Amino acid sequence: MTVRELRFDVADVDAVVLDIEGTTSATGFVVDVLYPFSRSRFGALLAERGDDLAVARAIAQVRELTGDPDADAAQVEKTLNTWLDEDRKATPLKTLQGIIWSEGFARGDLVSHFYDDVVPRLRAWHAAGVRLYVYSSGSVAAQRAWFTNSPEGDLTSLVSGLYDTENAGPKQEPESYRRIAESTGLAPARLLFLSDRPGELDAARAAGWRAVGVRRPGEPYYEQGVGDHAQAGTFDEITITTSGSST
């Protein structure tokens, strides 16, 4: 299938909201590098820092979700690993992964991944006055670490806001996108969401957003496609026109 080029006029789009896995970055990097990194450190985090506010809150959420208020650290760790195997987008799992990954990035143990076409396009959009946001199932802490520790340096200055399943809600529910629109102060129709997952694209569109599916060969959702949404193979195929110039 030939992927057609897309053009969005700045009069219609004020901001681009980015998914990460499969969209800006390879899912394989997350699964093959970041997941094992967090799995090997869950036990120590729970045992040594269970009283830290964020960790204690996540532990309480695990207990609530499993219906086991007395689950000890070992049981919580087992649940986290089960959710990891299932690739479940559970908020406490993402919170604890975010803590572990943030510290790994800060130590230099980890460097994030971006597809080659992404960062130049993000810089061009930002320079043209298009606001950029991130909405990922990974925690805000993980997102911030991801953009801070890219192969091309700190990219956080390009991003106006970060959203996850805790501050926005589940990614396949339209209400989450309504919350984001309200938070940004932008009309839903002026927001463009980029994701590889059709369920997320459907939810964004149901909330009044524009939505484009990003289909990259080798990604888990490539063969499934993006339903009846517009699609692009790379960010270079998405053009936003501003004041007589295109980016």
How far is the first residue's CA from the last residue's CA?
25 Å
N to C succession of SSEs: EEHHHHHHEHEHEHEEEE
Average the pLDDT over all residues and give the rounded result. 92
Low-confidence stretches: none
Percentage of residues in helical conformation: 40-55%
* Secondary-structure-derived class: alpha/beta
Count the helices. How many? 9
Q: β content, as a range?
A: 5-15%
**Order of the strands making up the biggest sheet:** 4-3-2-5-6-7
- Rounded radius of gyration (Å): 18 Å
The tally of strands reads 9
Shape: globular
Main sheet: strands, sense, barrel: 6 strands, parallel
General description of the model:
- This protein is α/β, with parallel strands linked by helices.
- It contains 9 helices and 9 strands.
- The chain has a 6-stranded parallel beta sheet, with helices on both faces. The chain has a 3-stranded mixed beta sheet with strand order 1-8-9, with no helix packed on it.
- A hairpin with a 2-residue loop joins strand 8 and strand 9.
- Helix 3 packs antiparallel against helix 5 (91-107).
- The longest helix is centred in the middle third of the chain and has 17 residues, at 91-107.
- The radius of gyration is 18 Å and the shape is globular.
- The model has no long low-confidence stretch (mean pLDDT 92).
Task: Offer a concise description of the structure.
By secondary structure, this protein is an alpha/beta fold. Helix content is 43%, strand content 15%.
